[in-house]
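for the writeup, i need someone to sanity check this before i put it in the appendix. the sequnce is what the collaborator sent (i think, or maybe the updated version? ugh). structure was predicted straight from it, no edits. if anything looks off just tell me and ill rerun, i have time this weekend
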Amino acid sequence: MNQMTRKPGEKSLNHLFQPVEWGRFKVKNRIKYGACCVSNYNTRDGFITPRELARTKVIAETGCGIITNQGAYPDPEGLGKAYFRQVAIFDDKFLPQFEMIARMIKDNGGMAIQQILHAGRYGGIDLGYCIQPSIVPQTLPHFRPPREITKEQIRQTIKEHAEAAARSIKAGFDGTEVTSFMGYLLATFNSKFTNKRTDEYGGSIENRGRFMRELIDAIKQATPDHPLVVRLNGTELMDKWGGNSEDECFELMEQAGRCGVDMISVTVGWQEAPKSSIGRDIPPGHWNYLAARAKKLLPDTPVAFGVRLPDPIMANECLAEGQFDFWEVCRPLLADPELIHKASEGRLNEVKRCIGSLNCLSRLFRDLPYTCTMNPALGHEIEPEYNVKPAAVHKNVMIVGAGPAGMECAITAKRRGHDVVVFERSERIGGSLVGYATHDLAHKDDLKSVVAYYEVMAKKLGIEVRLNTEINPKLMRGILHQFDAAVVATGVRIDMLALPAPEAPGILVSAQDVALGRVPPARKLVVIGGGKVGLTLAESLKSSGYEVTVIEREKENCRRRNAVVEMASYRLDRGVGNSDLHQQSSHPDRQRRRHHCRRQRRGKKDRSRDGDRRVASSG
């Protein structure tokens, strides 16, 4: 590409946007869209739906050099099927829709890869059982009871993978990918946790890797001259269950490299791993060392990586340092499908960042269509009302509240051509999210980036935001005639009148006011309400040196009408306490908290009066 014609971001992120050759293929940049989620948008019998095709069109237009289509199960019996609406590729009858997807990707300048996903331990969703190398009980009860895969089934499974790969090439894909990510079938053979076999497929790490090597060989023979990607764990995070060490994971990567695999995608964790891998509690860049180790181990094999790496700037730096060869990205493109285009144009401040809340995964694991906290249009691309188009009638729109709901409404209305004025009672855009971000226990920059995005877009689009302006009846009567529509987006408020009246003014305050800094906390605090807001604020204040007690009316193990559950020993110091009421901290360095729980009956001391200030987080 001529340096003079390059866009601003392509110059500053020159490694990311560098065209490269991968085998006989030319790739326009070093960005690989990863098949991070099964969408659950398709039919129960494995056919791709118009809804899926509309979503795939958006993916194809993201600007990635390589695009991996979501995992399809390869067997007619459904042993590889992990999700109710997962797509299938075990028969030519599925080819027409796959042909459309491959064409979409190529028409947008991308290289098309089809992932083949046999879920193994997590499969058999319609059968009532799953297969894996050995009968190792499930640690998560919603998965199916396991049966040991026979040698005949092993040979048949390898054959089905090879046929699925050939079928993918027939559909127009340039290559294929198999995955051990999350603890799928390939991972269960590799791992000593699930592979207890005593034959040639179990025991030593060489034997445990035999299934993988035979799988690679069969696919390579079935699809000569077409690349094969294998996704392998850099770490399983399964120490609790006796899983592989990091050294064993990398020894298995080395085996794959010796088999001539064309790319290794480095992944982290299993579904049932007790430690977090990609959530907000993991700081961006935390796992980069795994990719660097893989690249050092296999200098001649391309390495793709993107686990908890949502930032194009960091990815560009990693590429410059030779830590990996391709930035593998998925969830950040669910949050903002224009991320790559904005990066290339030098508009990173306009990116709506993935905040790692994993709404996509949580719905997937409940066999629901995946959605995104940051992108309300995800999955609705086929619905005309979700496509922002110029309005037929121009309107003056009044929006009350500059929190996320109000600003999303303002941005959409402005893009449709309306004139918008937002009224916000505080001194800045963001609403209660500003306070929550300030006291966030995970990675504060994630939530702060949402606030910054709204500030940038308000300025870019010319949205008038009147700060320090509280809407009341008198003001409404004076200005309402100026607007054609009014939208109230003030969010939830705590009903302070529902709580017992304090004995003196200023003792009972709102959690929102404390979080936003409107009211300073006292040395000794009682937080009323043990929900997410109350516990997050309590832990944040405790870490800042305040003495905190949390009181909660109802908890699953202490439900009684008119009872008050008191977490009298809200132990925020590590590993203290002994009770059956648990809360898992979202901070990676903190261990599990245990709170002493007891019901407070009539006649007992009201512990809510112990504090110098009472902070209401529910009411």
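The CA atoms of residues 146 and 411 lie 50 Å apart. The chain has three domains: 3-384, 390-488, 496-616.
thx in advance!!
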